[in-house]
Amino acid sequence: MTTATISKKKTRRTRRILFILLPILLILVLGFSILFFFSHQNLLFRLQNDLAATFHKRSLPQTVSVSTYTIQLDDLLSDPNCTKNQALMLINDEYPLSDSFQPEISYYKDTDVQMNSCIQDAYATMSSAVREQFDVPLYVREAYRTAKEQEDKTEENSAVAAEVGASEHQAGLALDLYVPQFGGWAFTKSAAGRFVDTNCRDYGFIVRYPSYGEKQTGIPYEPWHLRYVGLPHSQIIMDEYLTLEEYIDLLEPGSFYQYGSYLISHQNGPAIDAPSGWKHVTVSEDNLGGYLFTWEL
Ligand SMILES: [Zn+2]
Q: What is the CB neighbour count within 10 angstroms for residue 168?
C-alpha cells in the first residue's frame, strides 16, 4: 500500500468520525443549553425581556387635540371627582425627596407592613391573583422605610442602598416582593415571580429597575423591587420598555396623550388645562415641580 493510499484512508476515517461526532456534540450542547435555561428560568426570562427591549421602538400614546378649559389647581383638587396621590413621583439620586416630604402611609390590612395608601388596593388584587393562579402567598420583604431606616441601610451597604431621600421606599411607593423560597435574584426563578414581573402592568405596578434600563436608572436590575405608578401608566411604561425616568421626561408639558379612555397630561400649574367632559381625575406631583394628570373620560 502506498503512502498516498494510507493517507486517503485516514482522511476518510477522520471524516466518518467527525460525521458521527459532530451531531452528537451539537445535541449535547443543545441539551445542556436547554437544561441550563430550564434550571435558570430567571436568566431566560431576563434574556427574553432584554431582546424584546432591544428590538422594540419605544413610543408614547398618540397626542390628541382636545377642547379644554382653565381651572386653578386648588379648585381642581377640591373637586369630589379628583383624587390626589403620590403615585407618579420621580424619586432618584438626581431628584431626591425634600426634607419636608410627607408620605401618605398606612398599614396594609391587619399586618405591620406600612405602604403608601394609593398602593394598597392594587397590591391586594395582585397578591390575590398570585394566590389564585399559583397557590402561593406573595410576601412583602420591605415597603415603607423611614429616613432614619434608609440612613441605617445606606451606612450598612452604601454600594447598594440609595442615599437618604433617593429611595422610593421612603415614599412607601416601592415593594420588595418574594414568594416562599424565591426572594431577591431568585424571585423570577419561580413561575409566580415571573407572573408578577410580567403582569404587574395590569395592577398599576412596574419593575422599577428593569434589566434593560440600567443606563437610564443608574441602578442594576432588581426583579423584586416593584413600584406603583397607577393605571394606565404601568401599562405604557412596561409595554414600551421604558423606565420612569424616560416616561416622565417624554411626556411633553401641555400635551394630551390618549390611552384607551384615559387622557394623560403633564402640567406645571397653578392654572391647569382640563379637558371638557372629564369624569374623574387623578393628580400626582412629579417631584420636579409639576403634576401628572390622569383624566378618565
Ligand atoms: Zn426595594
A: 24
